[in-house]
Specification:
Elements (H helix, E strand, L loop, with lengths): L1 E8 L6 E2 L7 E2 L1 E4 L4 E5 L6 H12 L25 E9 L3 H5 L6 E4 L5 E14 L2 E8 L6 E2 L2 H5 L4 E3 L5 H4 L7 H8 L17 H17 L8 H15 L17 H5 L13 H12 L12 E4 L8 H13 L5 E6 L2 H6 L5 E5 L2 E4 L9 H10 L12 E5 L2 H13 L9 E5 L5 H5 L13 E5 L7 H7 L3 E4 L2 H8 L13 E2 L2 H11 L10 H11 L3 E2 L2 H16 L7 E4 L6 H7 L3 H16 L7 H14 L7 H12 L5 H19 L1 H6 L6 H10 L9
C-alpha cells in the first residue's frame, strides 16, 4: 500500500475552491508516486505544509505529540481565519494481507471490467469553536465514514525525519531515546512464549541480569568487594550529617532497570570511538529509522524526510538518494529539499515543484516534454541547471559568454537578478528547448514562471562571406523542400534552414534530421545531394542577408507561443557581434585586447594598469573613425575564429562596463537606448517584472 493522494481544505496557506466548506473542492491536491517523491521549491512554497499535513493525520513512529492549533487554520485575504479544516489521504496498492487490516473502512475502485483495486480514504477534520479546537480522524468510502482506531490507526504511522534534527540525542541513551523505540519494535526483541503461553525473558534480559548481579554485588556493603568503601562513605555522610535522627535509611548503588525497555534505553548508536560529526550522526539516524523496513512489516511503509541535505556532504546526499531510488522494499519516500545537487539527480518523473499556492508534478503525464527530453535531461540536468526549480524567474542562455555578461547588464540597468530571484541556466548548446519545455504543461496549469531564452540569430554578416571569398549560398525555397520530399519522407524537412553554405552543411543536416537509422537501399542520400546541387546558387547581398534574418527571427519566435516563455534574439548574428555593432564596440574591442594579452603572456597579471593602457590604445585606434559593418566584423573576427576566448572576453567586458559606469551612468544610458542591445535588456525586463519606463 502507498499514499496515492493528499487533499487539503483550509489548511494553512491552502484554502478551498468554492463558497461552502461542505461542498468545496480542496485548495490543494497532490498525487504521489509509489516510490520516491521529491518536493522542491523556494522557501515558503508549501513543502513543509504538505509534510506536516501527512504527519498530522497519520502520526509518526516516534510517537511525537502532534496537535492542530489555531494557526493551522487558513487565513483568508481579509486576514480572517476559517474555523474548519480537513486533511484527506487516499491509499492504494494494497495486497490482500494489507487489506485485511482495514476491511472495515476499505472501498473498491474499478480498474477494468474484470479487475478492482482496494482504496482507503482517511481524513482528519478539525473545528475551532469558542477558542477550543476539536478534531477527529475517520475513514471509509462515504462522506460519514467511521472512527479509525486500534491497530488500524497504528499501522498508518509514518517515519518522520525532521530538518536539523538533534540526531545525537535521538541515537543516544535516555528515557526519550528514539533508538530504544526502534529496537523495541524489531523482531529481534520480540519475546517468545512458553508452553503455558507466558512470555519468557529475552536473552538480553538474562545476560543483563547476570551483569546487574555482579555490579550490585560490587557495591554491596555486606560483600567483601572494593565498591563497598564508596557505599559506606556515602552512608556515613548521610547518617552523621544529612539525615534526621532515627532515620535509618541506607543508600545503595545499583545498575537500574531489569526489563528489556530499560536495557534498550541505555544503548547508544555510534559510528566511531570519537564523537562523530552531524552528517555522520544523521546517516546513523536514517539507517536506524529504516531498520524496521528491512522486515515484512504490516501496514504502511512511508518515510517523510525534510531537507534531506541537512548536515550531509553532497556525496552523502547522492549516495543516500541513489539508495532510496533503488530500494523498493523500503516503501514510499516523500522528501523535501533546497539542494540543487539533489534536484539534479532525481528523475524528473519523481519531482514535484511547489510554487506559491500550486504544485507542479514533473511527470510525463503533466508536462509537454517528450520521452527523449526526459532522457536528455536526466543526463545533463546538473546542479547549476537545477536552479530553475527554485527560482522566481529563469534566463536560459547558450554559452559562457552570456552567463558571465548578463548579470552585469542586469545590475547596470537596475535589475540585479538576485534581487528578483532570477537564475541563469547555461545549457551550453542550442538544447534550450528541452529545458524551456519543463515549464510547458499538459494540465494547462500556469507555472507562474517568467522565462527568457537568449539565443543567437546565426545569420552571418556579408563581410564574413566576402573575406572567406565564398559569397554564394544555396537558398532553400518551399519549392525546393517539395523536391526533397518527393525523394523521401524519412527526413524532417520542416526544420530545414533558409539556406546552406555548402554541400557538406546540407549532408550534415540530412544526417542529423533523418527519422530512420538507415535509408532504404534506393540511393536516397545520393539523390538528395544531387537535388541539392541542382539548385541554382545565389550571390549574397546585404538585402538577401536581411531577408534571411527576418525569416529566421519569425521562425524561431513562432516556436514559443506561451506569454511567459519568450525568446530574445540579436538583430544580426550573435551576442558578441551585435555588441560590436553597438555603441559598446570600443569596450568589447578593449576586452578582446585584454584577453589577448592574457593569452599571449600567461605570466603577466591583468591589473588596473592593463585596463588603463588598453583603454588609451582603443581610444587612439578609433579617434575620428565612424563605426561601419567592416569595423564591427573586424572586432568580432578573433571571437568568430576562436583565437580569443569568448568567456574571457565577456568576463573582462563586464569589468570594463562596471568601471566606466561608475561616474556618469554612461553605460546604463547606452544599454537602455541602443537597438543592438535592446534584446538583452528586454530579456532581463521580462523576468524581473517589466515596467513602462524601461526604455525611457
Amino acid at each position: 500500500m502507498y499514499l496515492h493522494t493528499l487533499k487539503l481544505w483550509n489548511f494553512r496557506k491552502y484554502g478551498i475552491i468554492g463558497e461552502s466548506f461542505e461542498s468545496a473542492e480542496p485548495g490543494l491536491t497532490v498525487q504521489f508516486n509509489k516510490g520516491v517523491n521529491v518536493l522542491v521549491g523556494e522557501n515558503d512554497s508549501g513543502k513543509t505544509t504538505i509534510i506536516d499535513a501527512i504527519r498530522y493525520i497519520l502520526r509518526t513512529q516516534s510517537l511525537e505529540y502532534i496537535q492542530i492549533d489555531e494557526k493551522d487554520f487558513h487565513q483568508d485575504k481579509d486576514k480572517l481565519r476559517t474555523n474548519e479544516l480537513k486533511i484527506e489521504c487516499t491509499f492504494k496498492g494494497f495486497d490482500d494481507k494489507e487489506a485485511g487490516h482495514f476491511l472495515e473502512w476499505l472501498g473498491f475502485e474499478s480498474i477494468s471490467n474484470e479487475k478492482h483495486d482496494y482504496i482507503l480514504k482517511v481524513w482528519l477534520y478539525a473545528r475551532n469553536k469558542d477558542n477550543s479546537i476539536y478534531q477527529y480522524v475517520r475513514a471509509g468510502i462515504d462522506s460519514e465514514g467511521s472512527y479509525l482506531e486500534g491497530d488500524a490507526r497504528e499501522l498508518l504511522r509514518v517515519v518522520y525525519l525532521k530538518p536539523l534534527r538533534d540526531a545525537l540525542s535521538e541515537m543516544t541513551h535516555g528515557n526519550k531515546s528514539r533508538l530504544a523505540q526502534i529496537l523495541k519494535s524489531h523482531s529481534v526483541f520480540k519475546k517468545e512464549k512458553n508452553a503455558d503461553g507466558q512470555e519468557q525473558q529475552h536473552e538480553l534480559e538474562l545476560s543483563y541480569n547476570k551483569l546487574k548481579e555482579e555490579i550490585d554485588s560490587f557495591f554491596d556493603p555486606n560483600k567483601d568487594k572494593k565498591g563497598k568503601k564508596v557505599t559506606n562513605a556515602i552512608n556515613d555522610l548521610l547518617g552523621k550529617d544529612f539525615l534526621l535522627d532515627k532515620d535509618n535509611r541506607r543508600a545503595g548503588i545499583n545498575l537500574t532497570g531489569s526489563e528489556l525497555i530499560d536495557i534498550l534505553r541505555q544503548l547508544d548508536l555510534i559510528l566511531e570511538d570519537n564523537k562523530s560529526g552531524l552528517g555522520s550522526l544523521n546517516l546513523l539516524c536514517i539507517a536506524a529509522e529504516l531498520l524496521l523496513f528491512n522486515e515484512t512489516k504490516p501496514g504502511l511503509k512511508l518515510t517523510l524526510i525534510e531537507e534531506l541535505e541537512a548536515h550531509l556532504h553532497p556525496q552523502y546526499q547522492l549516495r543516500l538518494i541513489d539508495f532510496i531510488n533503488k530500494k523498493e522494499d523500503f516503501g514510499q519516500f516523500i522528501l523535501t529539499t533546497h539542494s540543487t545537487t539533489l534536484a539534479s539527480k532525481i528523475k524528473l518523473e519523481n519531482l514535484i515543484v511547489c510554487k506559491d499556492k500550486m504544485i507542479y508534478p514533473m511527470g510525463h503525464a503533466y508536462t509537454q516534454l517528450e520521452e527523449s527530453d526526459y532522457k536528455f535531461l536526466e543526463r545533463f540536468l546538473d546542479a547549476t541547471k537545477a536552479n530553475l526549480f527554485f527560482a522566481k524567474g529563469v534566463i536560459i542562455v547558450e554559452g559562457d559568454a552570456e552567463n558571465l555578461l548578463i548579470p552585469t547588464i542586469a545590475k547596470l540597468i537596475n535589475r540585479p537578478l538576485h534581487k528578483y530571484g532570477v537564475s541563469i541556466v547555461n545549457v551550453g548548446s542550442t538544447a534550450f528547448k528541452r529545458y524551456a519545455k519543463i515549464f510547458l504543461r499538459k494540465d494547462n496549469l500556469d507555472f507562474q514562471m517568467q522565462v527568457s531564452i537568449i539565443s543567437d540569430l546565426d545569420i552571418r554578416s556579408l563581410e564574413f562571406y566576402t573575406e572567406e571569398n565564398t559569397p554564394e549560398i544555396t537558398l532553400i525555397q518551399p519549392l525546393n523542400i517539395h523536391q526533397f520530399e518527393g525523394i523521401t519522407t524519412d527526413v524532417d524537412f520542416n526544420k530545414m534552414p533558409n539556406f546552406f553554405e555548402s554541400k557538406t552543411e546540407f549532408e550534415n543536416y540530412i544526417s542529423a534530421y533523418k527519422t530512420v537509422k538507415r535509408f532504404p537501399p534506393n540511393n536516397i542520400q545520393t539523390r538528395l545531394v544531387t537535388a541539392f546541387e541542382s539548385i541554382k546558387k545565389t550571390t549574397l547581398t546585404t538585402e538577401i542577408i536581411q531577408s534571411l534574418r527576418i525569416k529566421r527571427r519569425i521562425s524561431k519566435e513562432s516556436e514559443w507561443k506561451d506569454d511567459r516563455i519568450k525568446i530574445f534574439l540579436p538583430e544580426k548574428w550573435t551576442l558578441e557581434y551585435d555588441i560590436a555593432c553597438s555603441n559598446l564596440f570600443r569596450q568589447i574591442d578593449q576586452a578582446i585586447l585584454v584577453s589577448n594579452i592574457e593569452k599571449s603572456n600567461s605570466s603577466q597579471s591583468i591589473n588596473e594598469d592593463t585596463f588603463k593602457e588598453t583603454k588609451k590604445e582603443i581610444e587612439s585606434k578609433y579617434n575620428g573613425i565612424e563605426l561601419s559593418p567592416k569595423i564591427s566584423y573586424d572586432i568580432f573576427k578573433p571571437l568568430s575564429k576562436g583565437t580569443i576566448s569568448k568567456a574571457s572576453t565577456s568576463q573582462y567586458l563586464a569589468e570594463i562596463l562596471e568601471t566606466e559606469n561608475e561616474e556618469d551612468q554612461k553605460i546604463t544610458k547606452i544599454l537602455n537606448s541602443d537597438p543592438y542591445l535592446k534584446y538583452l535588456c528586454d530579456a532581463i525586463y521580462h523576468v524581473t517584472e517589466p515596467k513602462l519606463e524601461a526604455h525611457e
